[in-house]
Amino acid sequence: MSGPLVILGIDAGDPDFLERWVREGHLPTLARIMDRGSWGRTGGPELISEHGVWVSLFSGISRREHGYYYYRQLRPGSYDLETVIGLVVDAPPFWTQIDLAGRRAGLIDIPDYDPVPGIPGVQLAHWGTHNNWDPDHFVTAAEPAEVLEDVSRRFAPRLVTVENHHSTASQDRAILNELLARVRLKGAVCRHLLDKGPFDVLAVVFAESHTANHQFWRYRPELNGSAGEPALTDGIRDVYRAIDREAGLLLERLPSEANVVVVSSVGMADDFPATGLIEAFCRGFGYQAAPASSGSGRPRRPIDWVRRAVPERWRIALSHRLSRETRERLLADQFRASTDWTRTRAFAIPAPYTSFVRVNLRGREPAGIVESGAEYDALLGRIEADLATLVDPEGGEPAVVRTTRTTDAFKCGPHPSLPDLWVEWKPGRFMTRVVHPGGELVQEKPDFYRRSDHSGQGFFAAAGPAIAARGNIGEVDVLDLSPTFLALIGVPATARMAGRPIRSLLA
């Protein structure tokens, strides 16, 4: 091994932002890495959904195997919705595959991963990640345990910043200051833990970029021209600059022979929710059947009385007062009870941006009625054709810009966990209605509403003695990163890894 492997993660670091701000001189640390090494973008089917990208990236294991694509998924063999997170899927990170005899690892805030017992070195998890506001699922922990005690005493027990999609400009200015302070504190923690080295593998992920992207998206000059909030117009850039500065301070303390890789998970996109549209589509086009009405036509359960009596906008306002777990239980109950599964051919898993369509497949779903093979393929073709008829009445453009079949993207049969069809809607505005030859589909503004989501590309840059200085090498498959990390420390890829080392990256 030529030197230690250093991985600096930028959560949801948008490649357009990173490349532009390098050119403009705002990210000097990243610029130096790009100038003396190789860089490009990450892509591939794994980036079809933001959830699970870090799992695929750090494990090298495809969604085809681990099955994680969204925090709300259908429990296999049922019509129940369940919460799924990266911690519960079988996709061990690449550092568990290393023969660590004589080697030490420093692992700080790797999204979707708990500390792995038995690895020499230091591990700190869920201390300052994008999801650590959810302590029911992400519990701050460390290996050895006294590391968390030390960090909590010297710095803070946990860094928590929650996105506020209903914030005022004044609140956003306070959130920006909080994020900048978080980045500085994260950098200080990394330098402090670096003193417990040296490490043969050091991996750190900064999460503040993810929150900043969403929180300050609406203030970008591209959306506001010169009418934006001056202190917030460059809010996203300021957070990226702060991360770049802390990365530079960290690299100053590392050996010059280190092989450094900067990597982001996904990029950003100007997008709006379409949950109501995909449900209206499945029902309006006859794919998803409503339960047969009882003789009296009256609701049978108290929750049904509430839904019928309380207007939608009031229910949304009331839902803000409920815990996330309670909202998820109510949604799962409504999802299960609002469909006649014995007459349903396809349905959608509730999700705000990319829509997930599932075929009610015989042998996979409890009451499946669609046969595998020709019938399954023909049904997906019909759904795609019907989606293609949807038009945004404002401008007359197609309402759906892309559909992707899981069988094509992941080279597999109908999957036990993944959707059968991924539907991407027209970005740029919230469509309250779309039209088609037979009428129109409508949706109301949902509880979860923001005008940004994630793109299907990430970013990487690498430099060091074992890395070729080839400049822009184009797009690489995100599944090839973990085999490349192993190659940089002289360890072969494992049988479960779907990718291979990036030969154009290696010297």
Highlighted features:
single chain, 507 residues, four-stranded antiparallel beta sheet, nine-stranded mixed beta sheet, alpha/beta, Alkaline Phosphatase, subunit A, globular
Topology at a glance:
Blueprint: E1 5-10, H1 15-23, H2 28-36, E2 38-43, H3 53-59, H4 63-66, E3 72-74, E4 81-83, E5 105-108, E6 121-125, E7 141-143, H5 146-154, H6 169-194, E8 201-206, H7 208-215, H8 221-224, H9 230-233, H10 235-252, E9 259-264, H11 275-284, H12 302-309, H13 312-319, H14 324-337, E10 346-349, E11 355-359, H15 374-387, E12 391-392, E13 397-398, E14 400-405, H16 406-409, E15 421-425, E16 433-436, E17 439-442, E18 458-463, E19 471-477, H17 481-488
Parallel strand pairs: 1-8, 1-9, 2-19, 5-6, 5-8
Antiparallel strand pairs: 2-18, 3-4, 6-7, 9-18, 10-11, 11-15, 12-13, 14-15, 16-17
Helix pairs in contact: 6-7, 6-10, 7-10
Largest sheet: 9 strands, mixed
Q: What percentage of residues falls in helices of 4 or more residues?
A: 25-40%
Give the number of helices. 17
The fraction of residues in strands falls at 15-25%
Q: What's the mean pLDDT score?
A: 92
Overall shape: it is globular
Strand order of the largest sheet: 7-6-5-8-1-9-18-2-19
Class of secondary structure makeup: alpha/beta
Q: In CATH terms, what is the architecture of the largest domain? A: 3-Layer(aba) Sandwich
CATH superfamily of the largest domain: Alkaline Phosphatase, subunit A
Low-confidence stretches: 305-316
Based on CA atoms alone, the radius of gyration comes out at 24 Å
CATH topology of the largest domain: Alkaline Phosphatase, subunit A
Please tally the β strands and state the result: 19
Question: How far apart are the termini?
Answer: 13 Å
CATH class of the largest domain: Alpha Beta
